[in-house]
Structures are given as structure tokens and as C-alpha cells.
């Protein structure tokens, strides 16, 4: 198969959909790989690395879209890319269709095969191509929280791990899923006194078994949250209710009871946020302060560490890309239920129910297109 990897043109997006290692793997299996010049630079991969892996460099995005049977990307196509996509071309990337009618209509019109990372789903209902970004954001939440707890950034002025003779900082994590677990590991590793709250008792049992002694678990409810937020230095929001807006667990009135200089990191901001006072921020201006409490609410946290994020993402996306390249999208989707779930739009037809429902469009089962 002929595979094309354009440079991401969305503002501040430095990730790339294929590493030189991934390109080498595809080339080894007899595929042709075309990379847009400088596509990997933002993630620390230079053109020579791709050339050495057997890929061919193309100077313009038009040439990459023009030659490829499958385009591998990171973010959804943006306006200038819409008309570059050809009928029948496979576009394998994050789409998040339900949040953009314009994008959905554009992909219906151009007749492409849209395989969305975010809906590839394993039989246990987990989303393997979303997990790596949750892992990055979870680990990063503690790093960012620790930074903003420093006095120069407006924080309370505590060191997460404390020192001999001084107790460690207290970290509260709301939600013990992927983000919460990775945050807990990082905070615990730094020596903080960590509490994870969740509504899933089975999950809390599991976390209690595997976490070190400086991580405690607690049932999440309004009463407990209200009490805990008053005594913690760093509070991380990591809840998710699949397909729904995040519940507002930390309310405006609770904020008045929180000590000045406390840091709130709302990782769930991309689902509306689990703190009532959350509004999305960017890496350029990541924080704001209300009632002397610092809020960090960056919606694309992994964007700050593109090198790590690119490698983490492509570790997960490449195995599916190899299947598509090997068998063609139809056979790959027939053979793999997770990949079949990734099909969102095929030849102008919406084949993912959630997308059809979002914009009242006709829905056809993905199987009917194979
Ligand atoms: N800001 C970013 O850059 C970024 C990056 C990656 C993920 N995220 C977001 O982080 C959030 C968490 O993702 P995840 O992968 O960890 O999800 P997950 O499904 O693995 O975990 C969510 C957890 O929240 C728990 N939960 C639900 N309701 C709760 C409540 N009322 N109180 C306490 N816990 C509750 C669930 O039981 C589950 O354990 C999502 O909104 C995701 O979109 C944001």
C-alpha cells in the first residue's frame, strides 16, 4: 500500500503519525511510505531518520495527499486539507466527528474512508488508541501541579515529597481510571500523600491492592469530596462518564473552603471539566486563579510533550496501520472487530451511530460496507 504522512497543520500540533521506526516496519513489509518534509521535526525526528528508514520525502502536503492510498495523521483534517482528500482514500487519524458538523459533512462529501482512532474499541470496551494520551496527561498532571505549587507560580509553596522532618504534600485525585492511576503513580513516586476517589468500588479494591502504601482510596461522594478538598495541596480531576459531560464534583461554593495557593488540575476539561469553575486554557496561558486557588485546565496536555506523545501514540496506532496496509481496509475491518468499530464514514455514508445521531444523519451499519 502507498502510505502518506503529512505534517500536521493544526495550530500548535507538533506530533506526527509515524515515527522512523514505524516507517521502517512498513517499508520492510513492502509498502511505500511518503513523508512530508519536516513532518517529524516537532517530535524530534528529522528528515534523515525517515530517509534512513526507507521512506521517501515529499516537499508539499498536496503531493502527500495526491500519492497516498492511506493517509496517517494525528489530528482531524482542517479546512485546507478537505479538498486534498480523494474519493476512496483511507484517512486514519483522530476525528472526534461528533464535535464538528462541518468536518463530518466535508468527509461525507469527499467519499473517503474515515477510520477514527478514538472509536477503535476492544471487546472489553476499552479504547486502545485513547489510552496512551490519558497516560501522558495523567503523568503530566502531577508534574504541572508540582510546578504551580511553587511560590513563584502563585502556589502554596510546598514540595510534593516534603523532606525529612517535614510532611509531604497531600494530593487528591478524583477518578481512578487511566489518568487517575498514572497521576497516583507519579505523585506517590515523588513521596506525596495520595488519595484516589472513585465511585467504582471494584476499581478502588484493585487500586488498593497494587498501589504503594502512600496511596489511599476513598469512595467518591459529595460529602467526602467537600471534606477532603479543604486539606489537600494538589487536586487532580480525572473522572469520565463515557459519552457524557463530566460531572461537576468540585463546586463553586467548595472553592471558598480551599486553602489559598492550592492547585487544581482538571484533566477532564476536554469533557467539560469536573470542577464547576473550570474553563479550558491553552499551553500559552495554562492557568487562572479564582479565590486564590490556581486552576490548570489545558485541554490538550499531551501537546506539551510531543516527543513522548508521538511515540506513545504510534506504539498503539502502528499495529492497526500494518493490518490495514497488509490486507486493505475492508479485509482488515472484517478480520478485526476493534478496527471495524473505528470506521466512522465510508464512501459518504455515516457508519458510526454516535456520529449519525449527533447530526441527525442517516446511519448504516459498518458491516454493510465491507
Ligand atoms: N486534558 C487532556 O489533555 C486530556 C488528555 C487525555 C485524557 N483526558 C480526559 O481525562 C479524563 C479521564 O480519562 P481516563 O482515560 O482516565 O478515563 P477512565 O474511563 O479510564 O477513568 C475515569 C474514571 O472516573 C471514574 N468516575 C466516574 N464518575 C466519578 C465520580 N463521580 N467520582 C469519582 N470518580 C468517578 C470512573 O469510575 C473511572 O474509574 C477524560 O475526560 C479524558 O477525556 C484529558
Give a concise summary.
This protein has 370 residues and is an alpha/beta fold. The chain has helices at 20-28, 47-52, 61-67, 79-82, 101-110, 131-148, 178-189, 201-210, 222-228, 252-255, 306-335, 337-342, 353-358; strands at residues 2-5, 32-36, 56-58, 70-72, 90-93, 113-116, 170-174, 193-198, 215-219, 234-237, 263-266, 287-290, 293-296, 343-346, 349-350. The protein binds nicotinamide-adenine-dinucleotide (NAD).
Residue share in helix: 25-40%
* Order of helix and strand elements from N to C terminus: EHEHEHEHEHEHEHEHEHEHEEEHHEEH
Give the cofactors and ligands: nicotinamide-adenine-dinucleotide
N- to C-terminal distance: 18 Å
For the biggest β-sheet, the strand order reads 3-2-1-4-5-6-14-15
**What would the principal axes of the Cα set say about the shape?**
globular
Explain this structure to me?
The protein has 370 residues and is α/β, with parallel strands linked by helices. It is 35% helix and 16% strand. α6 packs across α7. It starts with a strand and ends in a 12-residue tail after the last helix. It binds nicotinamide-adenine-dinucleotide (NAD). The site of nicotinamide-adenine-dinucleotide (NAD) has 32 residues, from α6, α7 and β8.
Amino acid at each position: 500500500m502507498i502510505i502518506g504522512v503529512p505534517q500536521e497543520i493544526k495550530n500548535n500540533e507538533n506530533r506526527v503519525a509515524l515515527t522512523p521506526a514505524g516507517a521502517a516496519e512498513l517499508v520492510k513489509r513492502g509498502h511505500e511510505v511518503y513523508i512530508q518534509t519536516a513532518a517529524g521535526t516537532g517530535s524530534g525526528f528529522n528528515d534523515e531518520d525517515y530517509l534512513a528508514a526507507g521512506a521517501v520525502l515529499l516537499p508539499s502536503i498536496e503531493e502527500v495527499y495526491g500519492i497516498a492510498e492511506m493517509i496517517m495523521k494525528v489530528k482531524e483534517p482542517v479546512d485546507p486539507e478537505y479538498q486534498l482528500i480523494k474519493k476512496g482514500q483511507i484517512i486514519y487519524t483522530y476525528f472526534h466527528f461528533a464535535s464538528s458538523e462541518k468536518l463530518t459533512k466535508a468527509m461525507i462529501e469527499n467519499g473517503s474512508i474515515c477510520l477514527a482512532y478514538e472509536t477503535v474499541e476492544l471487546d472489553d470496551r476499552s479504547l486502545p488508541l485513547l489510552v496512551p494520551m490519558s497516560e501522558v496527561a495523567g503523568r503530566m498532571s502531577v508534574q504541572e501541579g508540582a510546578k504551580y505549587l511553587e511560590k513563584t507560580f502563585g502556589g502554596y509553596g510546598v514540595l510534593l515529597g516534603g523532606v525529612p522532618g517535614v510532611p509531604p504534600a497531600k494530593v487528591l485525585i478524583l477518578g481512578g481510571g487511566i489518568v487517575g492511576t498514572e497521576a497516583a503513580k507519579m505523585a506517590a513516586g515523588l513521596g506525596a500523600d495520595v488519595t484516589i476517589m472513585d465511585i467504582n468500588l471494584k476499581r478502588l479494591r484493585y487500586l488498593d491492592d497494587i498501589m504503594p502504601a502512600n496511596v489511599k482510596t476513598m469512595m467518591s461522594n459529595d460529602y467526602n469530596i467537600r471534606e477532603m478538598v479543604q486539606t489537600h495541596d494538589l487536586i487532580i480531576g480525572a473522572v469520565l462518564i463515557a459519552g457524557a459531560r463530566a460531572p461537576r464534583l468540585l463546586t463553586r461554593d467548595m472553592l471558598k473552603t480551599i486553602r489559598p495557593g492550592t492547585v487544581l488540575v482538571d484533566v477532564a476539561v476536554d469533557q467539560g471539566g469536573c470542577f464547576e469553575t473550570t474553563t479550558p486554557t491553552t499551553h500559552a496561558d495554562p492557568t487562572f486563579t479564582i479565590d486564590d486557588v490556581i486552576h490548570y485546565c489545558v485541554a490538550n496536555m499531551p501537546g506539551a510533550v510531543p516527543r513522548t506523545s508521538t511515540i506513545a501514540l504510534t506504539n498503539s496506532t502502528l499495529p492497526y496501520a500494518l493490518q490495514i496496509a497488509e490486507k486493505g481496509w475492508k479485509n482488515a475491518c472484517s478480520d478485526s472487530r476493534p478496527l471495524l468499530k473505528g470506521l466512522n464514514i465510508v464512501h459518504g455514508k455515516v457508519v458510526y451511530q454516535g456520529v449519525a445521531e449527533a447530526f441527525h444523519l442517516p446511519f448504516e451499519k459498518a458491516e454493510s460496507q465491507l
